[in-house]
Design a protein that fits this description.
Aminopeptidase; Alpha-Beta Plaits; 2 domains
Length: 490
């Protein structure tokens, strides 16, 4: 018996030694994927660029699902023509569906696939209840405390105006790109992009135009992104989550008086279904674009985090727990479940016979709207709850994965490192929907990145209260686009 115990102990120690060797080897060979560049000394941008963004914010190009304020979008058309005269006169300019814009800057070598920079003109509305919480009026464009305030300062007029500022400044210098460039600005991204980006993408497809890469809004440079990473993380979105909303409907034969409630009520049944969904979230998956992100970030992290990231096969549970602790990182590793609309009842002493709820799901690669539907039905497991698509036509599968070893990713990484040398560049999964998804027929390399450095708590300003951009951040955004165009088209 003692010999057997000694043998088992030796076997255990040997196994642990092998495990330690494997972990150490994987950690030591977990090599950096960062591009080596020299910091780039960007030229100063003119002071009037600030007033241009302020003017853009003052035009309330709000997207509502039921109507379009044509006067505001017509005013924005006029603003673009008057503010960027060289762009308007030298570049070919096409207006699609009255308010969306396509600009073409012809390059010297037409055998090269062009690049496409996109953004959107529209903004989300501001809730009446939240207006008092704004420190500056949401459509004022005020310059206060070194920040430009208002809707569009982050989402997404700063990119529209910033891209055109970069083109205008390069045209002043008589810059002639080798590779052709397109700019495309949709006017209805916030409500799905049907009349903007979809129509523009169809136009490109009919012209048989294929892009070397496409760049849209999306991920940003995040400070303190993960524990163990001392540098800001410059995250380039190589895919985006899909989108689907499901309606839950409970309809009983009768309601009744609240003084004699039955054991099963419509509201109680609906509430139970939603509680089951929240108690049983979709499983986490540390793979695909998230796995690739960790491969880029991990080698730059301090011990023991670099060891954990290098050995996800062993420490996957620890990593999943860490990522699940933050709402932002949790959204990257699983399909999320968000109850957003509830309706039932007409009076406090009347039991409703019907209750409805809408649940929004943001879908990670590997899941689909259909698989979400099937899992929801399985988790609820109640024949009294009818599950249906809210709008099947609006449902969207996750975006295709863009390569991390091609021209587009390399030129983006290089430009980021030149303008933001202290950052760590990594691919990522964008958790929100963008116009970029509509251009998949036009390019295999679609990226989502906005050259703005933010703290994690600042991300709530997007679609939130007190949206603003710092002056230095906006200047650097313009410098970034100038350098990106130069690096892409020389």
């Amino acid at each position: 018996m003692r010999k057997l115990k000694r043998l088992l102990l030796r076997l255990l120690l040997f196994t642990l030694l092998i495990l330690v060797v494997i972990v150490a080897f994987k950690t030591l060979t977990f090599n950096s994927k960062q591009i080596e560049t020299e910091p780039y000394q960007a030229a100063l941008v003119p002071e009037d660029v600030v007033s241009h963004l302020q003017s853009a914010i003052k035009i309330p190009t709000i997207s509502n699902s039921n109507q379009t304020d044509s006067s505001a979008f017509n005013n924005f058309n006029t603003f673009l023509e008057s503010t960027f005269p060289l762009v308007d006169s030298i570049l070919d300019h096409k207006i699609i569906n009255d308010f969306s814009h396509v600009y073409f800057w012809k390059g010297k070598d037409e055998t090269l696939d062009p690049i496409l920079l996109i953004a959107h003109l529209d903004v989300v509305p501001v809730e009446k209840e939240s207006r008092k919480a704004w420190k500056q009026a949401p459509y004022s464009g005020d310059l206060v405390d070194g920040f430009i305030w208002g809707r569009g300062a982050l989402d997404d007029k700063l990119n529209v105006v910033g891209i055109l500022e970069s083109a205008e400044l390069l045209l002043e210098q008589q810059y002639l790109p080798t590779r052709s460039i397109y700019f495309a600005f949709g006017h209805d991204e916030e409500i799905g992009g049907k009349n903007g980006a979809v129509a523009i993408a169809n136009y490109f497809s009919k012209q048989n135009i294929h892009f070397s890469y496409v760049l849209d809004e999306g991920s940003v440079i995040v400070e303190d992104a993960l524990k163990g990473l001392e540098t800001p993380a410059a995250l380039i979105g190589i895919s985006e989550k899909g989108y689907v909303s499901l309606d839950l409907k409970v309809k009983l034969e009768e309601g009744g008086h609240s003084s004699m409630p039955p054991s099963v009520t419509a509201i109680g049944t609906l509430g139970g279904a939603i509680a089951n969904l929240e108690a049983d979230p979709f499983p986490a998956k540390i793979e695909g674009p998230v796995g690739t992100m960790l491969d880029f970030l991990g080698p730059e992290m301090s011990f023991p985090y670099n060891c954990i990231f290098a050995n996800r096969w062993l420490f996957g549970g620890i990593l999943e727990s860490q990522l699940s602790a933050s709402t932002a990182s949790n959204a990257m590793i699983r399909t999320t479940t968000a109850p957003t609309i509830l309706s039932a009842g007409i009076k406090d002493n009347v039991l409703p016979s019907e209750a409805r709820g809408t649940i929004n799901f943001r879908i990670i690669p590997g899941d689909t709207p259909e698989s979400v539907m099937e899992r929801v039905k399985s988790v609820i497991d109640n024949e009294n709850v009818i599950v249906s698509f809210t709008d099947k036509d609006f449902a969207q599968a996750p975006g295709k994965l863009a390569p991390t070893d091609g021209f587009g990713f390399n030129v983006l990484s290089t430009t980021i490192k030149e303008l933001f040398p202290e950052t760590t560049v990594a691919p990522s999964l964008v958790i929100a929907a963008t116009d970029a998804r509509h251009y998949e027929s036009c390019s295999d390399a679609i990226y989502r990145f906005m050259p703005v450095q933010l703290k994690k708590e600042d991300l709530s300003m997007i679609h939130g209260i007190n949206e603003k951009i710092g002056l230095s951040s906006y200047h650097k955004l313009i410098q970034f686009y100038i350098r990106l165009i130069q690096n892409s088209t020389r």
